[in-house]
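Quick one: structure for this chain?
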Amino acid sequence: MERLDTPELLDEHDAEPKAMERSLRDLQRFNRWCGGTRVYRKIVRRLLNNCEHPLVIDLGAGTADLVDSLGGNGIAVDWNLRHLLYQRHTSHARRVVADVRRLPFCDNAADAVTSSHFFHHFTPEENMEILRESLRVARVGVAMTDTRRHLAPLLFTLLLRWLRLVGRITAFDAPASIRRGYTTSETRAIAERTGAKQLAVDNYVPLRWGMLLWK
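Got it. Here's what it folds into:
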């Protein structure tokens, strides 16, 4: 299946508020029930190797549910202020609106920089730039995960749309995110160009990849 880069509705700043909030809740459910949270926590633990009280910066964090799941110090970065403000009163993470290619943090500002289901939004060249910027900001390294571009998750998202189990925005965005995603080998090829001292790109169940870069 070839990569098809189609813009997603949730990325728009003028998305209708109720539809946007429904889509953010859909993403939280995907993380909770489809392995996103489990894989995210697993790769962060592997990167930091039981570092006590780590400071983690999460890119494209949305409602910050993933960085909150680590139970420590977290900074949620997103370019959309409305995503960061939604459910902020139930979150412990600090929130920063920023361009992930020009992070407003000094060198080695955090123990790790992370992301989940965010990599597919960018071209290979943009992702390489983001990874290098993330390595600059991280003391230990970078941990990222996303769904693999594969027919199985595409069919799953189309089934959810047909059954009307997700909101209007998610019904469009979920299949689009699979089509514009990356395979494990494509992700590894990008990671190898970042200049990281050590890297690992592995498959995780269900149909996700996890990437670790060490400084």
